[in-house]
Amino acid sequence: MDPQTIKRRGVMLVLSSPSGTGKSTISRNLLESNKNLELSVSVTTRARRGSEIDGRHYHFVSEREFNRLREDDALLEWAEVHGNYYGTPREAVDIAMGEGRDVLFDIDYQGGQQLMEKARFDVVSIFLLPPSMQELQSRLVRRAEDAPDVIQKRLNNAIEEIPHWKEYDYVVINNDLDRAFSEVQSILTAERLRKERSSPALFEYEKFLLSGAES
Ligand code: ADP
Ligand code: 5GP
Fold first, then answer.
1. How many other C-beta atoms are found inside a 10 Å radius of the C-beta of residue 19?
2. Can you give the pTM of this predicted structure?
3. Ligand 1: residue whose CA is nearest its atom 20
4. What distance in Å separates the CA atoms of residue 29 and residue 95, rounded to the nearest whole number?
5. In the chain, domain spans
6. Which whole number is the average pLDDT over 14-25?
7. Right CATH for 3-40+102-210 from 2.60.40.2100, 3.40.720.10, 3.40.50.300, 3.30.300.20
8. What is the pLDDT of residues 108-117, one digit of tens each?
9. Closest CA to 10 of 204, 194, 214
10. Strand-pair category, 12-16 with 58-60
11. Cα 177 to ligand 1 centroid, rounded to whole Å
12. Which residue from 41, 76, 186 is spatially nearest to 126, judged by alpha carbons?
């Protein structure tokens, strides 16, 4: 029996943080470094930013379309964030998890709460914090994707969002990017190895190992 073939359930990796902390940057690095990890592409009613590609960063939809998805129970979770609606399409997650792949969710704390209620066993949640409020503001300004009033709204919302770190499994402070990325990567690596995610296959592996001891 090849140890590489030991099957396990996928990890649902939830990353949340105040806007501008670095979720998208760390997500991008994770997706580049982990072949078995795929991004859950959310639907949103927010306007597309210049750098964003429809279907890759988000599925951009009208409010009417968003409501239809909600009514059809096609969203695993949804929330209103910074005055727009965001939601996680259920089908893509079901398919990936069914195939034993890991899924990354870049969602806010309201979505994190819903996923933790629905799939506590599969979810591993990480809350990212900025090194300071000044640095958070500088990152939002440097990103240069949002208008000044939108940046102000996101900073105000950060004050409501930050206390939700307590609901998460792990907290990572994104001061130095390389360090924060390596901490998030370590969490994912360790969580993949939890025995509960592979137990049926591990029982088989135990049998295989011990049958070798008899002969
Ligand atoms: P979020 O997805 O949480 O809103 P982003 O990933 O878009 O945040 O990051 C916001 C800005 O901060 C981007 O311009 C990004 O390049 C920058 N950034 C991310 N992490 C760091 C870091 N550790 N140090 C300095 N700048 C960072
Ligand atoms: P942004 O507009 O900067 O892309 O995202 C704003 C906030 O919405 C971020 O905190 C992001 O994580 C969150 N978000 C993105 N997609 C979803 C989603 O599908 N569900 C929920 N609950 N939040 C989301």
1. 22
2. 0.95
3. 22
4. 23
5. 3-40+102-210
6. 96
7. 3.40.50.300
8. 999 999 999 9
9. 194
10. unpaired
11. 8
12. 186
CA pair distance 15, 21, nearest whole angstrom = 11
The answer to whether 59 and 41 are in contact (CB under 8 A) is: yes
Residue 46: phi and psi, rounded to 5, are -70, 150
Choose the residue to mutate in 27, 43, 46, 86 for probing ligand 2, maximizing ligand atoms within 8 Å of C-beta: 86
176 Cα: distance to centroid of ligand 1 (angstroms): 11
Length of the chain: 215
138-173 pLDDT, tens per residue? 999 998 888 899 999 999 999 999 999 999 999 999
